Amino acid sequence: MIRKALLSLTVILLTLTVTGQSAYDILLKAKAMISEAKPEQAVTILSGFPGFASDSRMLNVMGEAQLSAGDIRGAIASYNDANRITAGSGEYGLARVYARAGDPATALYHLERSMRSKFRKSEKEVMLDPAFEKIENRPEWRQFWKTEWYTLPEMKIQEIEFYIKAGRTTEAGKQMADLERDYSGHETVLYGRALIEMASGRFSDAVASLSGLIATEPANEKYLRALAEAQTGASNHAAASSTYSKLIEMEVPDAGLLLLRASAYRMTGERQKAMADIERYLSIYPGSKKGLSLAGKTESTLGNNLKALEYFSENVKLHPNDPECYIDRADAYFLSRSWQWAINDYSMSLDLRPDNPEAWLGKGISLLNSGRKDDACHDFRKAFSMGNRKAVEYLGKYCME
């Protein structure tokens, strides 16, 4: 009886939460619940939203939630409803459902329909999707991939992206040279060039390349994301915040965009705007390490060190084995000249990750200000041995006797 009562209460609270929120907010929250292995809660808030049954985006996320919860029939129905509203939008979801059910023929039928739609996924996305694990060793799967679903320029871009992520910029450059030789003037060449420019640290050049692409495709999510990254790399944080705003206004279902925009706002000094985005993100992911860390750092730059410490302490409580959480709080104590508290947290971070030269330096300075010069000199030497050049100043001034 108690279990049923608690479940009913949860449903009521979730239903009330839906009231007054936009479809976008509900989508973000539902996706968060799925990622946190709470698909039943995602189903509850989606089904409680007015107009849910006429929104293909919500129906697709509903299908994802139902599949995660093991409701195969429900997922199939949701994806089919999504297809009826927006043609092709539910095909990839149906392919995933039937693959999970061990039906390769039907899965590949829907995957082919998805490949021929505007909702087509990249080869990397499909290949890494765990939903297809049951059928990836089947002959039907191997036969499916004998068809050239992607153009040669698209394949070259995927190779360039792979090499850049692996840090193999020389190989990426070779692929880019082939692309420019064979497909001069193709939009893919401009995008590939921008990727190479960013990997080489030429962010302003990347901004120019991507701006040309976006002039012709202003709502291209991939190009806008790359542009924001390039603008950030070029230290044009105001432009980056504007680009992230476009993505959020497009209602791209990724709450991480809120944190990226908050980081840009923080760099432009618009810290109240930054906190608004962070609080919105934390309402979706309450225990997020990144969210709590950025909240604390933003409050600290606003001069609210006590509030910053609250966020950092919550992070330590939720993530006690993460050295970065202790460093964040140690830095806050450092700024408030609470030396012993800073020493304690730097020590905890070093217990978890002893190869951090910045933590050794911070701990050394805190020890020095606590009157423990010998211990401080030991930490300065550790920091210097790990490549921290700032430690030289302290070694020369305090540790040469």
Q: Could you explain the architecture of this structure?
A:
There is one protein chain. The chain is an all-alpha fold. It has 4 domains: 143 residues, Serine Threonine Protein Phosphatase 5, Tetratricopeptide repeat; 105 residues, Tetratricopeptide repeat domain (Serine Threonine Protein Phosphatase 5, Tetratricopeptide repeat); 65 residues, Alpha Horseshoe (Serine Threonine Protein Phosphatase 5, Tetratricopeptide repeat), CATH 1.25.40; 64 residues, Alpha Horseshoe (Serine Threonine Protein Phosphatase 5, Tetratricopeptide repeat). It is 74% helix and 0% strand. Helix 14 runs antiparallel to helix 15, helix 15 packs antiparallel against helix 16 and helix 21 runs antiparallel to helix 22. The longest helix has 17 residues. The chain is globular. The N and C termini lie far apart (74 Å). The relative contact order is 0.04.
Show the helix and strand layout.
Layout: H1 2-18, H2 23-35, H3 39-47, H4 56-68, H5 72-85, H6 91-100, H7 104-115, H8 123-127, H9 139-144, H10 152-165, H11 169-182, H12 187-199, H13 203-216, H14 221-233, H15 237-249, H16 256-268, H17 271-284, H18 289-301, H19 305-318, H20 323-335, H21 339-352, H22 357-369, H23 373-385, H24 391-398
CA-atom Rg in angstroms: 25 Å
If classified by CATH, what would the architecture of the largest domain be? Alpha Horseshoe
- Mean residue pLDDT: 93
How many domains, as an integer?
4
Strand percentage lies at under 5%
Extract low-pLDDT stretches: 1-19
**How many strands in all?**
0
Order of helices and strands: HHHHHHHHHHHHHHHHHHHHHHHH
Tell me the CATH topology of the largest domain.
Serine Threonine Protein Phosphatase 5, Tetratricopeptide repeat
Helix content: over 70%
Class by SSE composition? mainly alpha
Q: How is the quaternary structure best described?
A: single chain
CATH class of the largest domain: Mainly Alpha
Number of helices: 24
Could you say which overall geometry the principal axes of the C-alpha atoms support? globular
Distance, first to last CA: 74 Å
Let me know the largest β-sheet: none
CATH superfamily of the largest domain: Tetratricopeptide repeat domain
